């Protein structure tokens, strides 16, 4: 790479957004000083999160195009802001690349980062650039805001609440399984049959549910909220633990990504595994009082958003359980993606 980090930073970030545009988004001092300075709206509290994408762990050449790596790194962070019922505002990007990296590849990763940021009105205000000895590591920090005292936590679920999700599950894991099995190169994705293309899209270009999170926050009716990065079972376990409750999920009510069953059949896989344990769907999982679900459904329908009731909150004794279609109930282990599992 014929660059030092200063020229690389300029190459990646210069000219992406006009001064004027950054100012209207609240940026007082952006890229180029020791730290960024940015405004928060009056009466709002800061909501901050960071997540990393590591080559070989979160992506491989056969699973993600360069632009997708950037898009998904930004999207997964925005999803955590959505899961607090907050609005994403600013992002910082920490990039580590091997010394011999292809600058054009890094630039494409940045195209994806900025594409996702623009989609959600997020301004990139800084970051850090270093070398790594092998593999790309991309860490995004997103700063958002929420009405003071109004953040939606994992800890507010109450027995008797309905449990809901904001959209279909299992698509990302199915898309990943399909890409790994087929090993097709990204240039061929455009020619995929539409069902597979949708699943691949769910894996490579997840769309965080910011509008749903903000709507849930505004209504004041949502008791607990979490986003699904590690899988439904794992995130349900997080809500149960944080709230000191149990959750009973009905398998029949789980919304499946379109084309999931056909893809599972083709790959001789179990679609329920993808739905429960696959992860990276970035839908929101929440609870609200049963009696308020009608009002929530109406508000979601008016906003063109979807909402699916998938179960109910119980007392803590039962833990997290799954009701099978035949009526039997079994424990739903808090199994999901584990970075340190032996494999
Ligand atoms: N290395 C770390 N140091 C401090 N806090 C961390 C670290 N890693 C994760 N956390 C915090 O632990 C909590 C759970 O993290 P995580 O499971 O990654 O959440 P999510 O799945 O929503 O990204 C978050 O509050 C996160 O900020
Ligand atoms: C090549 C490849 N193998 C496996 C996966 C699946 N995968 C990797 S990380 C992960 C969970 C989500 O990532 P994590 O870093 O745990 O995010 P967080 O829970 O902190 O939001 C999953 C399902 C993948 N995306 N790509
Ligand atoms: Mg995390
Ligand atoms: Mg989360
Ligand atoms: Mg995780």
UniProtKB/TrEMBL annotation:
Q: Where does Mg(2+) 1 bind?
A: 51, 128
Q: Where does Mg(2+) 3 bind?
A: 34, 80, 227
Single GO term (MF): ATP binding
Give the binding site residues for ATP.
110, 127-128, 154, 229
Which residues hold Mg(2+) 2?
51, 80
Q: Which UniProt keywords apply?
A: ATP-binding, Kinase, Magnesium, Metal-binding, Nucleotide-binding, Thiamine biosynthesis, Transferase
Entry-linked InterPro entries: PurM-like_C_dom (IPR010918), PurM-like_C_sf (IPR036676), PurM-like_N (IPR016188), PurM-like_N_sf (IPR036921), ThiL-like (IPR006283)
Q: Which domain of life is it from?
A: Bacteria
Q: What is this protein called?
A: Thiamine-monophosphate kinase
Q: Which organism is it from?
A: Paenibacillus lutrae
- Gene name of the record: thiL
């Amino acid at each position: 790479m014929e660059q030092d980090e200063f020229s690389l930073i300029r190459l990646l970030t210069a000219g992406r957004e006009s001064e004027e545009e950054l100012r209207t988004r609240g940026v007082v001092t952006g890229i180029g000083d020791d730290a960024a300075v940015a405004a928060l709206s009056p009466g709002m509290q800061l909501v901050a999160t960071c997540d990393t994408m590591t080559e070989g762990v979160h992506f491989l050449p056969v699973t993600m195009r360069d632009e997708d790596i950037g898009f998904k790194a930004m999207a997964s962070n925005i999803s955590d802001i959505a899961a607090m019922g907050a609005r994403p505002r600013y992002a910082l990007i920490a990039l580590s690349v091997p010394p011999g990296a292809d600058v054009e590849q890094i630039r494409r990763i940045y195209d994806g980062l900025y594409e996702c940021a623009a989609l959600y009105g997020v301004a990139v205000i800084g970051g850090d650039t270093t070398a790594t000895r092998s593999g790309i590591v991309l860490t995004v920090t997103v700063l958002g805001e929420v009405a003071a005292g109004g953040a939606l936590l994992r800890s507010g679920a109450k027995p008797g609440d309905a449990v809901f999700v904001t959209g279909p599950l299992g698509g990302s894991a199915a898309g990943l399984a399909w890409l790994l099995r087929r090993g097709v190169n990204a240039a061929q994705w455009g020619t995929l049959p539409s069902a597979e293309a949708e699943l691949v899209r769910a894996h490579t270009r997840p769309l965080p549910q910011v509008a749903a999170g903000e709507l849930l926050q505004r209504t004041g009716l949502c008791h607990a909220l979490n986003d699904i990065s590690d899988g439904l079972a794992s995130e349900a376990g997080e809500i149960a633990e944080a709230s000191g409750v149990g959750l009973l999920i009905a398998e029949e009510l789980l919304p499946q990504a379109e084309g999931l069953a056909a893809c599972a059949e083709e790959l001789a896989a179990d679609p329920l595994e993808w739905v429960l344990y696959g992860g990276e769907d970035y839908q929101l999982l929440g609870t609200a009082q049963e009696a308020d679900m009608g009002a929530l459904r109406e508000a979601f329908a008016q906003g063109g958003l979807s909402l699916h009731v998938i179960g109910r909150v119980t007392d803590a004794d039962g833990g997290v359980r799954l009701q099978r279609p035949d009526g039997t109930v079994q424990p739903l282990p808090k199994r999901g993606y584990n970075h340190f599992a032996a494999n």
